[in-house]
Every structure is written in structure tokens, then in C-alpha cells.
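Side project, low priority. Logging it here so it doesn't get lost.
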Amino acid sequence: MEKQQLAAQYLDILGSLDTALLDKFRPDAGNHAKLSGLFLPSVPPNIQQARHRVMVVGAETAGWKVLNKDERFTDLPAYIEKAMNRHQYIFESGLNKEKSRGFTFFNFLRSAAKQCGTDGLIYTNLFCFDWKGGSPIGSPYFDTIKKYSEQLLKVQINFFKPDIIIFANGISSASHRRGFFPIKGDGQVCRNSKDYYSQHKITKHHLWEFTLHDKIRCLRIHHPSAFSKKAQEARKFIISLLPFDEKQPTLPAVS
């Protein structure tokens, strides 16, 4: 039921989207073929049992696929369902894998899952498309991507009602995050900022905390792929700030 409710909200937002952007394998797709599939988070199956809800916001996916090669777009509701199913599969598969080499987004998600469990762990992104497997900021469609990304992310926050949001989207997209959630001016929604330098020697460049809409605790770090020592220290410390789930975290089975 919750999945259908979220899908209906996605449909309301995406009803005005040019669906040619989703039909990347049509013969005349042109530059549209360089866009990823649309990133649409699904609903964690046990979210109603979650004692805490923690949302982790990345930047964009790398080559996110919704339609298979040469598969054509049919209609928006079917596409939304397929995109949400894809998200659930990739998320659950990623949590069940062993730790990867290097610094990856899923290594960070797995660390978060060990601390706070998976029932209320929500994985989303600042941008709903990528471009050529990377950031969409320089793409010719960025104005459109930014418009729908903002609407989708705000719907997700309202729907999931997270207790904590970790913005791990990195520095290059920070100005767009602040555009979605202003930190000053008439539209300010981020307040009560603080850093952890005086007690923990972590500068606000690597970890910054604020409150969104006067109720959601937010933590901002570099993207989890950042390899500097200070970025690693901030990532490790932020996990300790998450609520600990006394239950032995059980990673979901991949269907």
C-alpha cells in the first residue's frame, strides 16, 4: 500500500515531464540516450517497524538503468513501477554484498545499516538523472533535471518523515542543495547550524549539522568516495552519531 501511495505521488510530479527523456533506446533518441534511467526510491519493506528513520542523500547514480537495452518506454505508471523495483533490488543487493575495496557509497550505507539497522534506512539522491554516467550539472537538460529532482526529493522527505538526513552529495553540488533547502533569506528552511571542531577537531568543511524545517536533524559530509584523511574521519564519526538499533541488524533477502 505504501509503495503505491509513493508511486502515485511520483506520478503527480512526473506527469508534466517530457517522457522522451525516459525513452532512451528509441531510434531517434539522440542526446537523450546519454541520460541514465530515472532514479525513484522505493519503500523499505519493514519501514513501519523502524525505530528510527535515516535518509542518506547521494549525488547521482553512475549509469542507473531502468529500461533494458533496446526496451522501449510504454507508459509512465509502468515506468515508475519498474524504476522503484529497480531501486529496491539494487539497494537490497548492495547491502547484502561484502565490503567493497576503496571508498564507495555502498560501503557507507553498509556502515550506516550496521549502526541503525535497515528497516528505516532510506537511500535517495540529490539528482534524479545522471549524464554520461556522472554528474548532470553540465548537461543540456540540467534545468529540467534540477526542477524534477527538487520536487521528488521534497516529496520523499515528506513521505518518509526521516528523523535524520545525511546529505552526502559532495561539494560540487552543494550550491544546488542549498537552492533546494535555503540556508538564509526569506525562504530559509535550514537553521541551528553547528560544527564539531571544538570538541572533535572536524571542521565544518567536512561535517556540518543543521535542522531542516525546525524538526529534522541534518548532517552534511563529503561524498563517501572522498579519500582524504579528514573526509574519512568525518564519515567514521558521523556513523557514531546515528542511533544504535539494539536489535541485531538483519540485512534484507534479495528476491
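Brief comment: Residues 248-255 have pLDDT under 50 and may be disordered.
Revisit when time allows.
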